[in-house]
Write a structure and sequence with these properties.
Strand content of chain B: 15-25%
Distance between the termini of chain A: 23 Å
Largest sheet of chain B: 5 strands, parallel
Number of helices of chain B: 5
Strand content of chain A: 5-15%
Oligomer: heterodimer
Strand order of the largest sheet of chain B: 2-1-3-4-5
Keywords (chain B): Cobalamin, Cobalt, Isomerase, Metal-binding
Family (chain B): Belongs to the methylamine corrinoid protein family.
CATH superfamily of the largest domain in chain A: P-loop containing nucleotide triphosphate hydrolases
Structural class of chain B: alpha/beta
Largest sheet of chain A: 7 strands, parallel
Strand order of the largest sheet of chain A: 4-2-5-1-6-7-8
CATH class of the largest domain in chain A: Alpha Beta
Helix content of chain B: 40-55%
CATH class of chain B: Alpha Beta
Number of domains of chain B: 1
GO molecular function (chain B): cobalamin binding; isomerase activity; metal ion binding
CATH superfamily of chain B: Cobalamin-binding domain
CATH architecture of the largest domain in chain A: 3-Layer(aba) Sandwich
Helix content of chain A: 40-55%
Pfam families (chain B): B12-binding
CATH architecture of chain B: 3-Layer(aba) Sandwich
CATH topology of the largest domain in chain A: Rossmann fold
Order of helices and strands of chain B: EHEHEHEHEH
Distance between the termini of chain B: 17 Å
Radius of gyration of chain A: 23 Å
Number of domains of chain A: 2
Protein name (chain B): Cobalamin B12-binding domain protein
Number of strands of chain A: 8
Amino acid sequence: MGGTDATALGDGDAELVEDLLAGSHRALARVITRIENRAAGYRGIVAALHEHTGDADVIGITGAPGAGKSTLVDKLAAAYRDRGDTVGVVAVDPSSPYTGGAVLGDRIRMASNVGDMDVFFRSMSARGQLGGLSMATADAVKALDAFGKDVVIIETVGAGQNEVDVVRTADTVAVLVQPGSGDDVQTLKAGILEIGDVFVVNKADMDGAERTLAELEEMVHRRESPTKGLDGGHHGFEVPDHPDDEERQDDGDGGDDETTWTPAVLRTVANTGEGVPELIETFDAHAIHLRESGAIESAERRRYAEEIRTLVRSDVGALATAEIERRGGIDALADSVRRRETDPYSLAAEIVEPIAECVDRDAT
Amino acid sequence: MSAEQETRAVRCLVAKVGLDGHDRGAHVIARAFRDAGFEVVYSGLHRAPEEIVQAAVQEDVDVLGISILSGAHNTLVPKVIEGLKEYDAFEDTLVLVGGIIPDDDETELKELGVAEVFGPGTPMEETIEFIRNNLPERA
């Protein structure tokens, strides 16, 4: 037991890591499977890969079902390939809470990249455990990053906290919205709106696109801090909060402004590829902004802090579970509470006590 | 001691290959697999053998189910199997074929490395049971 054991690399695994770094697709696929399965030794693999990561631009794409995420991802991947970048895609789909089964259908849309192994597309499903999905996704992204992918795209349905956590593992987050979805925009307000660096009105050739664009513009500018500009002083005079997006974006790119990024609102027609080059430009601009403003460092710090917390919580939880087992199992304990022999608080304190003792001993 | 519980799932690719637009069967199979708790990747229609190989390798599936109703199985299936071997993925992938396959061809396909051929009217449970009993050993 203990940290060194958990991250030790077995012989076969060392070979697997070597093969992945050498560019074996099979090894990459296998590593992601190990990560998904939380299979024995996967921690050692991810730990060994970590030093090889950090070079990929990680982009998260989220939006309601049917917004056109998969089609857009396909076109994005093709456009990145055209300029010589290699691409990894992790497409996350929900799974049935009853059987655990899932139909992962995003691959069907990947029509522009057939036979191109330099687009590595992987479907993943939520395998039940809370918080595990974002961890598994982050680890899969690390594998693709270490493999040498220039761009890694995470695609997920934006439906709940789980999905929000998933896209938060990306450096740049694009939220896809369908035209005419006034109500959808309303629901986006909660949670998803805050995480979007870019808002994309897809199917922009449909009725209602202009209106949706306008609504998003308004929302993006409203979300800015009302005191913004008052303490900036760069422009000599306070800039009124007007919705001229082009100009504001230039502000962000120029880097002479403060370190805030005003989310861009763009239009695309994923089916025809319209707007895709502009979208990629915006992704690039955001990546540059992150690097130049130093925001990437705080984002990474926040992300790794979350990873450490999740891992520690899960490990300590496992220790506690083992302790519960040692004391006769959770059912027996529950029964003793039911018979009024003890109460949940006292029991919990008793179970945690040995762990707490170790912490105290090391502290003194 | 491993702190985490393994969360292994059976991963399947349900593939339609070649010029064959009949995918009702593939859809029904995909849903049955899902309901059995498998993770199913569906390829979509009219896939070339290389695409099937690409998908099977990248998705690292345990089971590859190829649905063919066009009669071209003798040309298409060997190409898929060759491709899997090229990527060193054949050994631990259970390759199944579903569709209308004459008996002689079935023998030939099995010699090539197809684990089982399921014809029309095969009960869903039989296929699922077969998969559960014949899953490739994996690390």
